[in-house]
Structure prediction request, 271 residues.
Amino acid sequence: MLEPAVRIPPHDDTVIAFDRVSVIRSGNFLVRGLSWQVELDERWVILGPNGAGKTTLLNLAAGRLHPSRGTAFVLGERLGRTDVNELRTRIGLSTGQFGERIPPAERVIDVVVTAAWSVVGRWRETYDPMDTARARRLLEQLGMGALLDREFGTLSEGERKRTLIARALMTDPELMLLDEPSAGLDLGGREDLIGRLTELALDPDSPAMVLVTHHVEEIPPGFTHGMLLREGTIVASGPLGEVMTADNLTKTFGVALQVDRFGDRYAARAA
Ligand SMILES: Nc1ncnc2c1ncn2[C@@H]1O[C@H](COP(=O)(O)OP(=O)(O)OP(=O)(O)O)[C@@H](O)[C@H]1O
Ligand SMILES: [Mg+2]
Prediction:
């Protein structure tokens, strides 16, 4: 499949513009010659086997990694030529690794409100009441309204995931990055989270979104585009319906797969 031509420098509504980006570590290509463009109103899902480079790609998009080769623009800033600390405040990132850094005794509302200062752990005694009100509203939207004062360490996996998503939204980011948000959730928790991600995806005020997942079943309705990644290169990318075919998924995962579509949800199994 031909990769779309990327306009460099990107226009105002372009959130991500990667042109032949490679990430090389110890002589290995984690990402190889990858071109990708994401617009403000797009919601992307990235699928691929373990080690395909999904998290590496997300770390590039988060400004936490620079390309070894190629040019990468995020929110109009060129990686390697810009102050990434400033850029990072414009990006919401939700990963499991981050959750592990939160002190277990931290209250849920504080986990979210501290995002305004890009810190982990409560270090101020008082917050701006507007920040607290915003954190409360986000937590309520994510179904966490009854748990504002609970200690983070006592939450279930699903409740933690929802808290971290509220935290990622706290700074009103222009780009939202989610690495395997449904990992470790039971069926009810997964479906609940997918419903909330669908609401976010369909809200025109939401930021551009990029979600990494292992399962086509976990693609929230409302997501518009897909990328299939294998060994650091794109197998297919573009409008979701065109990308999620049995042929493309079979190439990506290296097993013969059948893909079914039920309304706005997908399912895959061995062919
Ligand atoms: N600093 C590094 N040096 C060498 N290899 C690395 C480094 N960081 C990651 N890798 C390797 O790069 C590959 C891609 O890693 P990445 O975490 O992006 O994969 P992934 O698609 O997110 O996989 P998973 O589905 O298991 O989370 C893996 O093989 C990993 O071992
Ligand atoms: Mg990963």
